[in-house]
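input
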Amino acid sequence: MKLHTNSIIFMLLSIWTLVVECASNKKLLKEAKKGNNNIIKLTDDNFRTVLKPTRDSHIVVFLTATQNDIGCTLCQAMEEEYNLLAESWFKTHPDGINNKDTTGDRGLFFAKADYSDGGNTLVFQHFKASQVPLLYVFGPESDPNANINTFQQLNIPSTSSSGDERVNMLINSFTHYFELENYKLFKPIDYVSRTITTLSLIGVLFLMKKFSNIVFMVIQSRILWACFSTFFIIIMCNGYMFNKIRGSIYAGRSQSGIEYFQAGMQNQYAIETQIVSFIYGTLAMSALLMAKLIPYSYTYFMKKQKQYNAALSAVILTFLFLTIIFFFSSALMYVFRLKHGGYPFKFLK
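output
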């Protein structure tokens, strides 16, 4: 009789534990649906309730600070990446649960506290966060009396890996660490962009057909092809593909303000490509105009028998273009010195 009673008590406790765990997962899912991108927003009011024990799922906590005056470029870069990380999981696991057939109610949920939002000072104090960004993971917990100080810190991939590359690295890490199934990168379809692209393409084809004579004239223009080729070469030589492959952020932040150039030849901001392309483009255009415009101007005035004007225009234009070339070449050398401190050449201080 005693054994039978103990069995009943044990069975009731098991059922109660299961009910509490299910309720915890449902509560986490409800909180996730309230936030953007299925991410639970942690505040001073709810973080103890969200992270409290008695759950059968993992919770990943992301501590960040995206405010511009804080100057955390990695936080800003990882903002969209963390959103994509959560969206990819919930795309194939809408209830946040891994696989009920193999893992029961064990799942994965995402939470975030952004210092820039305010109202979460206690969250950062609890984690003793002296720097950001940080990734913490809370594992499954069956003891309702346990505290919320049991967590582990996850490594964030280096800054050399960004964009989809870093997201894939985190997905692979989570899949192995949490024993997850069917977790792959999912990028939502931008229907607005596709619609605009389609309508623009239709419009371009219509205009090309209507003004076909002008189109053929443009296609056969050697000057336009030369300008396009030069522009393409300048863009590619200045790191456009590097930015696309590495997913370079647009610019950086430091205590002194915005950073436009990143030291070293293996790293760069996206804005560097625009600045250096502008410098090279100005130099190329100045050299071209000096070779073409000066003789044209000289010939034009000579045909009108204005020798003085011909000579004066040649001198003024030559001085103008040489001055532009001098200053922009100096700017280019200044960029080289910013990228590599040992670069010895310069025109201006």
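quick obs: Residues 2-178 form a domain with the Glutaredoxin fold (CATH 3.40.30.10).
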